[in-house]
């Protein structure tokens, strides 16, 4: 979906220009990386500080060997500020922007629960059925399907929990940590980050109004708003929380 292009803002160029998730996601990714870079560069200006920080190295070792002990290969090294910036950018992006894009957009499809039932209340008809059960299935397969579907309460509770923006949601870049506020350099970096997210909201609105972007606007096309940083409460298909919260 993208090729390396060092002249592009994030070092990659989309192979499909009208790709809403990719276009908006790269802007959000860039804002996150800029904020992480400012933060890391302040506390770890030299590689030796990364390598000698025993607590930081223990944290990374635990993630690799305990948290994801099943994954033996492919881990980046943690020796330089650039390494830490890359690691933290991914760790912030996945539960915030990436999760918001893949989760909050599901309701349009999954809200009709036969498309994606939350649970199966009975076993499949082919799983060791008795003679009577099999005969009943052959006579009225739709009855077996209805018995398998979740109840109305089970279906609505699951969808409401997963696809709804909570009234007390905490959005990315919205609230500053007290310790950051006490440090003028970190506070300024966070305010820049928050400003980038406000810019992203305007960028998304402008793209959704661009009639040349056929995947975002036009007859029968739903505007792409999944990576708008904030949202009103409810099922809105927009808003990027700080992290996954269920």
Automatic annotation (TrEMBL):
Coiled-coil intervals, chain numbering: none
Listed SUPFAM superfamilies: Lipoxigenase
Ranges of residues in domain Lipoxygenase: 1-246
Keyword Transport: no
Keywords for the protein's UniProt record, in alphabetical order: Dioxygenase, Metal-binding, Oxidoreductase
GO molecular function: metal ion binding; oxidoreductase activity, acting on single donors with incorporation of molecular oxygen, incorporation of two atoms of oxygen
PANTHER family named among the record's database cross-references: LIPOXYGENASE
Protein's UniProt name: Lipoxygenase domain-containing protein
Protein species of origin: Escallonia rubra
Lineage summary: Eukaryota, Viridiplantae, Streptophyta, Embryophyta, Tracheophyta
């Amino acid at each position: 979906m993208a090729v390396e292009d060092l002249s592009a803002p994030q070092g990659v160029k989309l192979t499909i220009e009208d790709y809403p998730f990719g276009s908006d996601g790269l802007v959000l990714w860039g804002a996150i990386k800029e904020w992480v870079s400012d933060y890391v560069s302040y506390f770890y200006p030299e590689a030796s500080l990364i390598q000698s920080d025993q607590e930081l190295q223990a944290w990374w070792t635990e993630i690799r060997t305990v948290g994801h002990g099943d994954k033996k290969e492919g881990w980046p090294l943690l020796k330089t500020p650039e390494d830490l910036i890359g690691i933290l950018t991914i760790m912030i992006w996945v539960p915030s922007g990436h999760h918001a894009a893949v989760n909050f957009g599901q309701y349009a499809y999954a809200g009709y629960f036969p498309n994606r039932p939350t649970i199966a209340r009975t076993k499949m008809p082919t799983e060791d059925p008795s003679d009577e059960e099999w005969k009943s299935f052959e006579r009225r397969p739709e009855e077996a399907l209805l018995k398998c579907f979740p109840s109305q309460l089970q279906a609505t509770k699951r969808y409401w929990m997963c696809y709804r923006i909570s009234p007390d949601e905490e959005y990315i870049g919205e609230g500053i940590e007290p310790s950051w506020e006490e440090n003028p350099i970190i506070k300024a970096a966070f305010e820049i980050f928050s400003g980038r997210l406000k810019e992203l909201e305007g960028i998304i609105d402008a793209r959704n109004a661009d009639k040349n972007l056929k995947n975002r606007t036009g007859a029968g096309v739903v505007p792409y708003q999944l990576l708008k940083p904030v949202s009103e409460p409810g099922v809105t298909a927009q808003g990027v929380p700080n992290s996954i919260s269920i």
